[in-house]
User: Fold this.
Amino acid sequence: MMLSKLSIRNMRRSLRDYALYFGTLIISVTIFYVFNSLANQSFLESILFRAPEHFTANIEAAMTAISAFVSVLLIFLIIYGNSFLIKRREKELGVYLTLGMDRTDVAKILFGETFLIAVLAIVVGIGLGVPLSQLMSVMIFHFLGVYIPGLTFVFSWGVVFRTTLYFGFVFLSVSIVNVATVSRSKILHLLSGSSKQVNFSKFFGILSGGAFILALVGFGYWVFTTLTLDLDDLFGLNFDVSFTEDGLPVSEASSSLSGASLMLAFSGLVVGVFAFFLSLAGVLAFIVKRCKKITFYGLNVFTLRQLTRRLHLNWLSLSFITLMMTVSIFMLVAGRGTVLMGANAMVYTDRPFDGTVSVRHTPNFDALEVVDEVFLLREFELSGTRIDSIVDIEVQGWIDWINGFAYEDVSAIFDFHNTPLPTPASNEILLLVSGLDLDDTYLLKEQITVTYFENWVSRDHIVEETFDLVLVVVSENLLVTSDQILIFDQVVLVFPPSLDLSDMPFVHSSGGIIGRERNHFLFDFNVEAHVAEPIFWEFARTIPSGGWNPTEYDIFHTTNNNMFNVTTTNWIRVNSNLMSIFLTFATLYIGGIFLLVSLTILFLQQMIDVVESKKRYATLLQLGVDDQMRSRSLLAQGIAYFLIPLTLASLHSFFALQILLPVFAGEIGDSPAGIDFNHIVRAMSITFLWVVVVYLIYFILSYVQTKRVLDRG
Amino acid sequence: MTTTPILKVKNVQKYYGNDKNVTKAVHNITFDINEGEFVGIMGASGSGKTTILNCIATIDHLTSGNIWLRERSITDLKERELAKFRREKLGFIFQDFNLVDTLTVRENIALALTILKISPKVIDEKVEKVAKTLGIEATLDKFPNQISGGQKQRAASARAIVTEPDLILADEPTGALDSKSARTFMETLTFLNQDLNKTILMVTHDTFSASYAKRIMFIKDGKMFKELIKGQSETRRQFFDRIIEVVTLLGGDQHDVI
Assistant:
């Protein structure tokens, strides 16, 4: 009973002083919960529903790996934070032991405290996580500009259980470390406490000098490499033209060529960071000694010495923090950038329609009725064009499959967009080409020969007719307007009205024979995605009988040789953005946690420094230093201590972005040509500003808390 | 003596605790200190002697009464003014030295001047001079943990006098020193008093240290108990014996005070 009383009282006191630390613990639980609920819920399911299978497995594995990694990181943070909490109370624990309290009892007190912290963090964290996960979904998809049906965040016991399990494990590990610490420590040591002393010996001076030079060399190499790196050399990738026919960038081929130099540059960065912090205290001590004009004014000398001491004691953790922050800033900023790139690169798939229903059916099948039934029953009215009797044509001697359409069908689409389409003469066929393919070999042809049966029923009298090709360049948007057939080919033949194809019955075309393939309806519509998507999902699932097979770009459904395709712009966006969506999650998750952990460690170090320096500040007070001067010194130390890692990390992530962003641009977008870099740079700057804002919040809070502890002393 | 007192303490009272449970730490104490005096305050632990010192040092507040330093009342100063008062008018020497361990001895001494915002060049000169006076030039660029207790206390003294304060307050300055260092240090204080004409108020329960003062005030249970003044021709040894007598009278038990 007594022990739990001690635990609770201690907790209350610690909570007040280390509110920021506990806040971070709670936020960590919240973030953990949110991302696990994302990974767990119908959201991913519905995305992955149509995604390639290997992608599904990869994402799930990656999510688990990231969560495990994050929890290990958090274990370290909490052990670190807890060691501060114990250190602060070493004397108290020593007194308990001196009074004859059993070590197991002391261990019990500590265990009780950790347990209380754990319960508090988990309960509050999950409590915040539930509403936040709702907000997250809205935010993320707002950023991406997509809508995903079935993406609702419902409270899930599974995720609660998982979060509790992970964090239970985290806190248990911390408890074990705590108990081990206490049971090993000596009473005398606990009673006297230990405050590390910094002596700047000659050896230290030489070490600092050497490390400083090493830091300069490391940074120099890193910056030089990032600024002068020729990306074409590095990846054998020219971003303007080098795309394979599938639209994938040719990046694998020679990427290993100068990968070594990139690795070397990164080593320069890492070595530079460590060497920099190793040398910083020494360099600062040198300056303090030499520049009396600066140091012998007000509390400058005290401020600088305090800072020097702190930098020296924490050089290793500061190096890690800087690297972590570099990764964090890079991830958050680059993540935002690549997502936009993904969205941007799809500009050419930005169709004037929100979606298209296309039905290819056998002559006896009333497609219209089915479609009407599905949509009209849901008060969902189709607008736009309804096109019947489009034919697919295979043309002899052509290098690729190419689609041919009757003039009236295509002109209907063009009319819908108020764009004139020239009428071909009886001996002409229009060749519609979008701007993208202008340099293609199609254009070298001047004539085209089409083969077809004159009498389709008896299958006799093969007609071979030659037409002149008339090139018509159309805007991309127009060509990809309607059915996905048009999207992919981007080269389309339009037959003259004189060539009457309307009576041709259905047959599957093959071997250079022209034929009317199927009755073909196209319905284009403009309806907001959040209205349309659920209906399509319903449609796809409920059409009677027949298997259905989701592909990358549409819902594809077959029943008795009748094929339904539903394509929405939103879905094309979601699917092309799978990688981006995942990146958004991963970068927010890792980048966010890294940032919070780094900032919390900075706060804890700031706090422990003030606690250890209480006597020094008391001396200042006796010497006649007033409250304002003291606060200013504390503020200056805090600013310097927080600013150094931030500045370094910002610069490094900037240089890292220099080299890595174009690579991402190649990986994510189908065509970097369509990327609006100004927009992306602006968005990334805003993301960076957000990082700075979070940083600022932590800085201000930690200043307020440390000042309070100081004032109380 | 015709000089006006540098420090006037009048009817000072200091109570701790709340309405129900009041501890009278200092009860109606009145005394003056003249310029150039070396005054000791003696008393057993808990007698209230350190409380008086803290009140004069303005790091503790009076319950009632008044304190004047050079005719100026310090009891109604505001917090900012108090800090200014401390850094300009007072010098402190403490039992545990209170040197800032992250600063070198030079920087510790300089600190008292830098917070007065004196030009760095002047500071440097003054630090060198005071270090020479107290014989600690060799330790100037060392950190406190690299020098002996005696050196630390001399460094603290250097810091206390470098601002040329009106009054030096010493709280058990030999408490953490071995007997040899204590003797050397007390000689240093005497030097400061006699040769540099510094006014010193020292609180101690150590009879040996007290014997270096010119006047001793004995405090018992927060009240003035007795006052001893060293005679013009009296040796330190004789003064020491007289102090012992009072101390015996004071506590009835000599162990308390030695």
In short: Chain B touches chain A at residues 57, 59, 79-80, 83-88, 90, 92, 94, 98-103, 107, 110-115, 117, 120, 123-124, 143, 145-146, 159 (CB under 8 Å). Chain B has a mean pLDDT of 86. Residues 5-250 of chain B form a domain with the Rossmann fold fold (CATH 3.40.50.300). The first strand of chain B starts at residue 5 and ends at 17.
